[in-house]
Amino acid sequence: MINPDLPLVYHPNYSFSFDEKHRFVMSKFARLYQYLDSKGYINQRNLYQPPMGDFKPMELVHCESYVHDLFHNQLDGKAMRRIGLPWSEQLMARTFTAPLGTHLAAELALEHGIACHLAGGTHHAHYDFGSGYCMVNDLVYTATRLINEGKARNVLIFDCDVHQGDGTAAMLAHNPYVFTCSIHCEKNFPFRKQHSDLDIGLEIGLTDPDYLNIVSSTLNDLIEQLNPSLVLYDAGVDIWQQDTLGKLDISWQGIAARDYAVLEICQQKGVPVATVIGGGYDKDHQRLAERHALIVEQAARF
What we know:
alpha/beta; eight-stranded parallel sheet; 39% helix; 9 helices; globular; single chain
């Protein structure tokens, strides 16, 4: 049974013409949207579109000169190489729109209980530099804005991407109202880890049973301890056993089980949850989009 009222957030500028051989699959956002539409998950009343963004809103959490120079193509070559994506006007449009999409999904989650953003999870972006295909941090922006506007008392960022959310951890290290948790493969990018409020580094090759137990028990404990106003859930699918950058041994069914468990725990405890898709790497671009669709398919069961 598909919940026809599950709020989904998407903007058409999330995908644009891009090098098909690049490791970052820019087409996955449009492919994800098209796949969900073909399966009946999208209708006229549950689809929401964020406004187009520019660098100004990101000054809330990022260095003003960094986001200005990024937006206007004034960063030096070394800084762009660290990001790993070639600058373009289309890239800037999607980069500065997506955080507004995560914020919109969070507001919808506070209203409806669950909401899914068909992008987001740029957790390697730091205060004054980008890294690992991440330029601005949508999770930090969303949590900070909700707290500042009095829409959330406290926020739990529950990051299950295979890579540590280093930018998120560093940017929120001294924020008492946002708790950062990263469950990631320890011997993987980034090689210089930051300190989240809770880091759980997993061994290479970890399989479904142990992984699912760690995720469920950790989230249960954190919600009991924190009683958060909202969970921001990074549902990265690069934990998959065949992901080109993953190093874990989690099955396709294991990803679905993880997503369902996270959502079920939040629902049972009455905590709103907004999801972002996080990372995923696959030379089969359609297969990647369908893997990202797992979070929406699980959310639609509630």
